[in-house]
Specification:
By secondary structure, the chain is of the alpha/beta class. Helices cover 39% and strands 25% of the residues. It has seven helices and eleven strands. Strand 10, helix 6 and strand 11 form a beta-alpha-beta unit.
Amino acid sequence: MLLALDAGNTNITIGAFEGQRLTGRWRLRTIRDQTPDEWGILMRNLFSLAALDLSKVDGVVISSVVPAVDQPLTAMSERYFQRQPMFVTPATSTGIKVLYDNPREVGADRIVNAVAGFTKYGGPCVIVDLGTTINFDVVSQDAEFLGGLISPGIGMSINGLFARTARLPMVDFRAPEKLVGSNTVGSIQSGLYFGFIGLIDGIVERIVAELGPQTKAIATGGQGQLIADGSKLVKICDEDLTLDGLRMIWERNQNT
């Protein structure tokens, strides 16, 4: 069994694979000062609740953009699984050629998404990852990571709107009942929902114009399905794209 972890600034997504089948998936808050034992207890409890056998884990692969959790996750892997984890780094064999000016600047999650997006859907493609930020990761038809765009995330915008105004309430991100809100909550929800769909469609439209009409647009991340439901150009939502990419990279590096 393979344990895959994607550590982002807001959440850590965890997946357990038996072969190519994802048998467990969890999303937890990223807690930077959590100890290896606390991580280990969490893993044990998650596996127990899903009726999975912790002792069957024979590999651990991690992508992380949060350096503070790298050492605790490494220690957790060694202590609870007796495995040295494989971190995705610029030196990792992925099958994707990175054309960034400085490949070391690219977040590991972006490369993982590029691998999964290209492998599952072909190129050219753009992966729209809705996390703390909204990342647009662009892959050519020749399996080249061309780069991308980074925009403020939905949660970041909601928190900023609430924090910087005196009377506007905190709201959930959801599809509104109607375009023109007739109350404050509805107005905010409509502005957020259609505002972000407009931002995403506008950027994807420009990418498609540059790469060609055959370009696929794939959404992933926490609000991926909500965006795909309302978008004119992003019609694919793949919630497990990053976890699948981690599995693919792990398998590639076991055969080299």
